[in-house]
Write a structure and sequence with these properties.
Blueprint: E1 5-9, H1 13-26, E2 31-35, E3 48-52, H2 57-69, E4 76-79, H3 86-92, E5 96-99, H4 103-118, H5 123-161, H6 167-196
Parallel strand pairs: 1-2, 1-3, 3-4, 4-5
């Protein structure tokens, strides 16, 4: 299987770079290139096309229609609002929408949908990446949900250890402190996974 080739079409270089950054961070084996809309003259030689429409959704829809007219199966338009005036145009152009404020969460799932719809050989690869990203987000939410109660339990147990207690209660507090620290360390390892992701 060849490398997944992605094309980001947009005139805002910084925003196009942000889109490329998300794509390459979440799909490390992919090759992502940027193209100014003025240079879009022939059918894109790419597996997926992401169009920057965050400042001008109508232009994004027009570019998606142009890409479709060139024979490309579908594109993703990154715009600020899918429920506004651009929604019918996106559907007519066969394009998917990704919210510009949610790049890290929405671009790869929309790409997976478009590739699956087009029957691309890369659809399974992108779906796996999508599932891994979702699992990582769930793990990080779970970790953050546990941190505060665990910190409270750990603090209380450590305070109780300062009191004169019978040996069996002191041993129980040692186990509580040790288990809390184990879970907190496990949570910290999830933070490291998030950075690598």
């Amino acid at each position: 299987m060849s490398a997944l080739r992605l094309l980001v079409v947009g005139s805002d270089a910084a925003f196009a770079a942000a889109i490329r950054g998300v794509l390459t961070a979440q799909l490390p084996d992919a090759v992502a290139e940027t193209l100014d809309p003025a240079h879009l003259r022939t059918r894109p030689i790419a597996d997926g096309v992401v169009i920057d429409g965050h400042t001008d959704a109508a232009l994004g829809v027009a570019l998606a229609a142009r890409v479709r007219a060139m024979g490309f199966a579908g594109a993703i338009v990154v715009a600020s609002d899918a429920n506004g005036d651009s929604a019918p145009g996106l559907a007519a152009a066969g394009a998917a929408h990704a919210a510009s404020g949610e790049l890290a969460v929405e671009v790869v799932p929309r790409l997976a949908e478009q590739l699956a719809h087009a029957g691309s050989e890369h659809a399974a690869q992108v779906m796996r990446a999508r599932r891994l990203i979702a699992a990582g987000e769930i793990a990080l939410r779970f970790q953050h949900s546990l941190n505060n109660p665990l910190a409270g339990i750990l603090a209380e147990a450590q305070l109780m250890q300062l009191d004169p207690l019978p040996a069996e209660q002191h041993a129980a507090l040692e186990r509580i402190v040790g288990l809390c620290r184990r879970i907190i360390d496990l949570g910290r390892s999830l933070d490291g996974m998030g950075e690598k992701k």
